[in-house]
């Protein structure tokens, strides 16, 4: 059997860009804090964490792509919340956002992590932003660490 590549969570030597939406800030702010907490807990210097704000989830892919293609970041973490109850064009926003984030990742060959909550209600969103169902921002940062590590192993 050949190589097995499994991500590790060693202190990252690269910079990270968090791209967060301003929409639903009550939910998104704790996601940002969760992501930062995860990265710092894994040994990242806080000075290596940059943060860019988009107006809403629909604009996350462009900022993510610009960040990823800049060559400055080992990973990009997209954070936001699209809530069906408050969004008549929910399906359009979610599907274009998700495919845009995937496209940013594949085009740039930089991990672009989708830490965007897509829920039916504000209550469900809050549950995933640091209350009873964990913190999706923290989880997204874990995914960023893992993906960068696996990619570095494959490429080295
Ligand atoms: N953007 C969000 O991030 N979450 C939402 O729930 C939301 N709602 O409810 O509409 C939302 N809309 C704004 C959208 O992402 C764009 O910013 C806007 O359409 C301008 O392009």
From TrEMBL:
Pfam families: DMRL_synthase. (2S)-2-hydroxy-3-oxobutyl phosphate binds at residues 86-87, 128. This is 6,7-dimethyl-8-ribityllumazine synthase. InterPro entries: LS (IPR034964), LS/RS (IPR002180), LS/RS_sf (IPR036467). Catalyzes the formation of 6,7-dimethyl-8-ribityllumazine by condensation of 5-amino-6-(D-ribitylamino)uracil with 3,4-dihydroxy-2-butanone 4-phosphate. This is the penultimate step in the biosynthesis of riboflavin. Pathway: Cofactor biosynthesis; riboflavin biosynthesis; riboflavin from 2-hydroxy-3-oxobutyl phosphate and 5-amino-6-(D-ribitylamino)uracil: step 1/2. GO terms for biological process: riboflavin biosynthetic process. GO terms for molecular function: 6,7-dimethyl-8-ribityllumazine synthase activity. Keywords: Riboflavin biosynthesis, Transferase. The active site is at 89 (proton donor).
């Amino acid at each position: 059997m050949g190589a097995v590549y499994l991500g590790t969570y060693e202190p990252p030597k690269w910079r990270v860009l968090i791209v967060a939406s301003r929409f639903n800030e009550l939910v998104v702010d704790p996601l940002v804090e969760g992501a930062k907490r995860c990265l710092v807990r894994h040994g990242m210097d806080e000075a290596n964490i940059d943060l860019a704000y988009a107006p809403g989830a629909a604009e996350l892919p462009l900022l993510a792509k610009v960040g990823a293609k800049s060559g400055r970041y080992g990973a990009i973490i997209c954070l936001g919340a699209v809530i069906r109850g408050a969004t008549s064009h929910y399906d359009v926003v979610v599907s274009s956002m998700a495919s845009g984030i995937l496209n940013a990742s594949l085009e740039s060959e930089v991990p672009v992590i989708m830490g965007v909550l897509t829920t039916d209600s504000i209550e469900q969103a809050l549950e995933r932003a640091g209350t009873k169902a964990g913190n999706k921002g923290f989880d997204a940062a874990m995914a960023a660490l893992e993906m960068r590590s696996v990619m570095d192993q494959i490429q080295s």
